[in-house]
Amino acid sequence: MTEVVTEPNVPQQAERRLTIEGLCKTYGSGSNAKTVLDGLTFDVNAGEFVCIVGPSGAGKTTLLKCLSGLLPPTSGRACLDGEAITGPPEKLALVFQEYTRSLMPWLTVEKNITLPLRNKGVSKRERGERTREALEAVSLADSRRHYPWQLSGGMQQRVAIARALAYQPEVLVMDEPFASVDAQTRFELEDLAQRVRAQFGVTVVFVTHDIDEAVYLADRVVVLGSSPCRVREIIPVNLAAPRDQVRTKADPAFTELRSRVFELIRKG
Amino acid sequence: MKAVSTRLRSLAVELWLPVLVVVVWWFWSGSAGLQFYPPLSEILVRFQEMWLFDQFVSDVLPSLRNLLVGYTLAALVGIACGVIMAQLPIARRALEPIVHFLRSVPPVALVPLAILLLGFGPGMKMTIIAFSAVFATLIATLDGVRAADPVLAEVTRVYRISGRDRLLRVTLPAAAPQILGGLQVSLVIAFVVMITSEMLASTEGIGYLTILAQQTFAITDMWAGMLLLGLLGYLFNRLFTLAERRILHWHTGMREQAKTA
């Protein structure tokens, strides 16, 4: 396993990047109304890696859509650097779960990555540099002229990560990004996520239903309960950095944390 | 070597029937002596005399120009209206019934009105070609844009891809397979309407010359006209397929990838 260098845990007085205050989301109205998010409150500090876990169907995707400005909350608010999120913020990038659907099959890897930069007013030279840097960070420098569908699933998701990195966001939101790749690839991508977080100094909000993954990656784990979705508990993860697939997961502290999260989720 | 022989074989498989038809036609028409089926050799002589190149400028070019202008207009208007109707629900609700009504009207039925309004000139033909051909593209574009994956819409919003980039690099490519299907149907319709409009109301064009030949019992000339129309139709379809393959190379590649994976 490759060693992962992560920044030490963020101190308590760290700058708050994301604040979520009493976030509610209700679909429909009247007797058909269905409350999906019920008063979620938590913060994410600058440079922090926060994992959000919850039972499936808990509303994780709805939460992410509110965070990334794709969906307006019914009440409460989500703020990025103190500003309420009302539409997709320029400082935020999203990695979707479905890599086959989120990349444009008619564009090469390189053009997929530069497309979002064209509207950002990034010069052509800088677009090229950012693309090269992002592709190197995900070890795909040789594939820039390929089309996404010519690559394996894991490689496609790395392209999606590269696209997000080249966008140079302050906050990187990832929606179950490794849910549909095989186990071996998944471990590699987890370590990649840690590596790019350190290299690009980006704040990461990572949604997953995999408890091991959440505990392995996170500085803090936000455990959600279901129907309607509330924050059950926020668990700080003080495992030694750098994390390592073998050593970290053999650590008794890791086992204890994952049991705790598991118990919380089982209670629903 | 093996590749060459496989290619020759597949060529032979494709060509044997057309070659057989031509050979049978040649010998049968040469010896049959039927009034309405002149010998193929004579048809080819008239073909060469008429189209290469005596009446090429006076009749073939006007036909092709009408087709090109009418079809291009249909393609542009069809794609533009299709995209607008797909993205603006109010435009869709307001226009969809009339679109479905107008596309059910047989285009040839409009020729009498078109003659009244626009006369016999090329403007009438271009208009009626464009009008007849526009709906297939419009409806295919509307369906294609609406059927696009919602994840792509989220990607464009999150990454703030907008304006021209969104239209040319996301919306249109995503709907391209359907749009090209519509454009191909439009091309066939445009070609048919080009010929019919010339047969019904014209003093120039391949369709006009062909029907004139029939009416004056110049049967060989009529066959020469039909032969040219058949060849042109085949040629256009061939060119279209080539262009389509280039534009949709990613789509074909992706599907083949999915099959082998």
TrEMBL record, chain A:
One of its Pfam families is: ABC_tran
Q: Which GO terms describe its molecular function?
A: ATP binding; ATP hydrolysis activity
Q: Tell me where in this chain the ABC transporter domain is found.
A: 18-251
Keyword field:
ATP-binding, Nucleotide-binding, Transport
Gene3D superfamilies found in the cross-reference section: P-loop containing nucleotide triphosphate hydrolases (3.40.50.300)
Which CDD domains has this protein been placed in? ABC_NrtD_SsuB_transporters
Statement: the UniProt record of this protein carries the keyword Transmembrane helix: no
Decide whether keyword Cell membrane is in the record.
no
Matching PANTHER family, A to Z? ALIPHATIC SULFONATES IMPORT ATP-BINDING PROTEIN SSUB, TAURINE IMPORT ATP-BINDING PROTEIN-RELATED
Provide the protein name.
Answer: ABC transporter ATP-binding protein
Task: Specify the species.
Answer: Haloechinothrix aidingensis
UniProtKB/TrEMBL annotation, chain B:
Q: Which organism is it from?
A: Haloechinothrix aidingensis
Membrane topology per the record?
Multi-pass membrane protein
List each copy of the ABC transmembrane type-1 domain by range: 60-240
- Gene3D superfamilies in UniProt: MetI-like
The identity of this protein, by name, is ABC transporter permease
The record's annotation in PANTHER family points to: ALIPHATIC SULFONATES TRANSPORT PERMEASE PROTEIN SSUC-RELATED, ALKANE SULFONATE ABC TRANSPORTER-RELATED, MEMBRANE SUBUNIT
Q: Name one GO cellular component term.
A: plasma membrane
Q: Which UniProt keywords apply?
A: Cell membrane, Membrane, Transmembrane, Transmembrane helix, Transport
Q: In terms of domain of life, where is this protein from?
A: Bacteria
Main localization, broad class: membrane
Spans traversing the lipid bilayer: 12-28, 68-88, 100-120, 126-146, 167-196, 216-236
